[in-house]
Design a protein that fits this description.
Blueprint: H1 3-11, E1 19-24, E2 27-31, E3 37-43, H2 47-62, E4 82-83, E5 89-94, H3 106-127, H4 139-158, H5 164-189, H6 193-197, H7 200-203, E6 204-207, E7 216-219, E8 222-225, E9 232-235, H8 236-248, H9 255-268, H10 273-284, H11 287-293, H12 303-329
Length: 330
């Protein structure tokens, strides 16, 4: 998007952009003439969903958790969103200065766990029985559709529809990948999910949806949550899974990282046996392999990436044993 168009959008919020920097697609850092910094972010949601996100986050902010969201007490925060010439929705939030937490720092990971638990507690109060945009009942269908996608890729590999090295790799390891997917579905059936699903108002929380090191910011004020385009209602186990997955996958599934996250979370809220079982469901599904098989830019569809993904799935086996031991102790 051109500099002029960015300035026009920012102007709708009542501020002037003296400088701007594209962070990545649809996200810009804006600096005003007075030196104040903001984040301009495109939200790929319909207006009703965007209004719901805004309403939920405004309520959560009043309960204390640190969020990168608008403050209606400030002039630039009075307008919930702006619309570009193309009809795209944009939000303007404070630019949170600080650093991303490092999975190599257990102190950082513990802080993320604490921040997520506080967000969940405040979010339950915000919902007050409103379970709009809930994915609580969709776990079976989500796992099933992803498994079907993997199966279709395996079927294509059997006809050598990909390059020969990729086709041979998938033919050789396809049964193992599907075994992990079936194990995840079996874990879900024995997890207690049905009782949770039947009481969504009791068990649902406001779920960030894509927690991980890149969606927390640490500074002298505390731990902020940022980027809320995936906000929805779900079980808290899903959010914990996302933070654990995104924090551990690039660090050879070092369980001490997950332990620090869970320790932090438990400082604020208790976890039940079913919560741990539900976390294991998502961790066991071969999601990294699914991403490599998908048209996902960050994970190119190559033999080396497929091997990397399979190695990751294999490490999760021992990781899950350690998670089960952690559950027994706590």
């Amino acid at each position: 998007m051109s500099t002029t168009n960015v300035k026009k959008i920012v102007k709708q919020f009542g501020i002037k952009a003296s400088a701007q920097k594209r962070i990545r697609g649809g996200i810009y850092r804006i600096v005003t003439p007075e030196g104040r910094k903001f984040c301009l972010k495109r939200m790929t949601k319909q207006i009703a969903r965007l209004r719901w996100i805004d309403r939920m986050l405004m309520h959560v902010q009043r309960s204390g958790p640190l969020l990168a969201w608008r403050n209606p007490q400030n002039p630039e925060g009075r307008k919930p969103h702006a619309i570009s010439q193309k009809g795209e929705f944009f939000v303007l939030t404070p630019w949170i200065s600080g650093r991303e937490p490092s999975p190599l720092s257990l102190t950082d990971m513990r802080a993320c766990g604490i921040a997520l638990a506080r967000f969940h507690k405040a979010g339950q109060n915000a919902l007050k029985g409103d379970i709009s945009h809930s994915q609580i009942g969709m776990w079976y269908s989500t796992l099933h559709s992803r498994q079907q996608y993997i199966q279709k890729k395996i079927a294509k590999a059997k006809t050598n529809s990909f390059s020969l090295p990729i086709s041979r790799f998938i033919q050789r390891h396809g049964p193992e990948i599907l075994r992990y997917a079936n194990q995840a579905k079996a874990l879900l059936r024995s997890s207690g999910y049905e009782s949770y699903r039947q009481s969504p108002r009791k068990n649902g929380v406001l779920c960030h949806g894509d927690g991980g090191p890149s969606n927390f910011i640490l500074n002298e004020n505390g731990t902020y949550l940022i980027d809320f385009e995936t906000l929805h209602v779900d079980l808290r186990a899903y959010d914990l899974y996302r933070v654990i997955y995104n924090s551990c996958k690039d660090y050879r599934w070092d369980f001490s990282i997950a332990k620090a996250i869970l320790d932090g979370y438990r400082e604020v809220a208790k976890l039940k046996k079913t919560d741990y079982k539900l976390i294991r469901v998502w961790l066991r599904f071969p999601f990294t392999t699914y991403l490599v098989l998908s048209p996902f830019k960050r994970f190119p569809f190559t033999e080396s990436r497929l091997q990397w993904a399979l190695d990751s799935e294999r490490r999760i086996t021992s990781f899950l044993h350690k998670l089960e031991e952690y559950e027994t102790r706590h």
